[in-house]
Amino acid sequence: MAHDFKVLSSELLLDAPIVAVRQDKLAMPNDQVAFREVIEHMGAVAVVAVNENNEIAMVNQYRHSVKRRLWEIPAGLLDVQGESEILGAQRELVEEAGLEAAEWSVLTDLVTSPGFCEESARVFLAQGLTAVERPEAFGDEEADMDFAWVDLDEAVAKVLSGEINNSIAVAGILAAKQVLSGNGQAREVSAPFELRPTSIASRRQGPDLKKQ
């Protein structure tokens, strides 16, 4: 019979604007106890936007944690209280790529770092694209973001060569290749996102989860 890893106690160690850190005391097998630090996260959405030439929209953005620019697909936090995943994805596609899409489906859900972080992401496939005005960004990494259309097969090759290494982009690109090649089936946007984190959303008040 599988062990029940019951939380015996929990302490909030850090409550920052974008993430929080808590320490859980767990009941372990053989009557042992252990402490586990967990980075709380709001969850994220990302979009593989594919045009009529089988090219995907990609952005090049500075990521301070690894101190380098990474090629990524448009993505962002689920930082609006109560916002659905599809609305978050549509918002991010406009903000980061200046695009709207007529057709949406779900490619994959993933947990990015389950050893210590509850971050999960839902990756959408967007087709039937239309260019729209992209809002101007001020004061953060998005103000210095580059944009490019990349052939899907070229993007797959860049994943395998290590040139594309953002985990959400890797998962989205490979899943899109399978679906668009007829080797997989995307899901409806109404499919439940059971992995979406709730810790921060349940503790903070107001529409913007980043504010405290």
TrEMBL record:
Gene3D superfamilies in UniProt: Nucleoside Triphosphate Pyrophosphohydrolase
**GO BP, one example?**
nucleoside phosphate metabolic process
Q: Which domain of life is it from?
A: Bacteria
Q: Which Pfam families match?
A: NUDIX (PF00293)
Q: Which InterPro entries does this chain map to?
A: NUDIX_hydrolase-like_dom_sf, NUDIX_hydrolase_dom
Domain called Nudix hydrolase: residue spans: 40-172
Q: Which GO terms describe its cellular component?
A: cytosol
Write out the entry's keywords from A to Z. Answer: Hydrolase
Q: Which GO terms describe its molecular function?
A: hydrolase activity
| Protein name in the entry | ADP-ribose pyrophosphatase
